[in-house]
């Protein structure tokens, strides 16, 4: 795995983790009972985005280290996902 593919892998894992972490412990304006005129009741009142970004970065780093370790060790390769035998045979 090259540097670019490692960065891309981390970015994909970070954004997937971000989309999971964002809705956790969110307080909406409807929950707080203080709806600002012109906004939706589901708009966030308290969102803690900075804290969630740091949490996401830590979780993504751990997941990336595990996935990168598996890829670099060769335990799982592209050939493991060749279910239709489309890859050419390994030349020795």
Write the layout of secondary structure elements.
Layout: H1 3-21, E1 27-28, H2 29-32, E2 44-46, H3 49-73
Antiparallel strand pairs: 1-2
Helix pairs in contact: 1-3
Explain how this protein is built.
With 92 residues, the chain is mostly helical. Helices cover 52% and strands 5% of the residues. It has one domain. The protein is elongated and about 70 Å long. The model has no long low-confidence stretch (mean pLDDT 90).
Number of strands: 2
Largest sheet: 2 strands, antiparallel
The percentage of residues in β strands lies in: 5-15%
Q: Structural class per helix/strand content?
A: mainly alpha
Share of helix, binned: 40-55%
Throw out a few tags for this protein.
two-stranded antiparallel sheet; 3 helices; mainly alpha; 92 residues
Task: Summarize this entry quickly.
This protein has 92 residues and is mainly α. It has helices at residues 3-21, 29-32, 49-73; strands at residues 27-28, 44-46.
């Amino acid at each position: 795995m090259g540097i670019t593919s490692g960065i891309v892998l981390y970015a994909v894992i970070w954004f997937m983790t971000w989309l999971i972490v964002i809705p956790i412990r969110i307080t909406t304006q409807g929950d707080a009972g203080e709806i600002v005129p012109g906004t939706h009741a589901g708009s966030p009142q308290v969102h803690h985005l900075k804290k969630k970004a740091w949490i996401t970065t830590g979780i993504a780093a751990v997941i990336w280290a595990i996935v990168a370790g598996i890829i670099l060790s060769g335990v799982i390769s592209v050939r493991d996902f060749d279910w239709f035998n489309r890859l050419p045979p390994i030349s020795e």
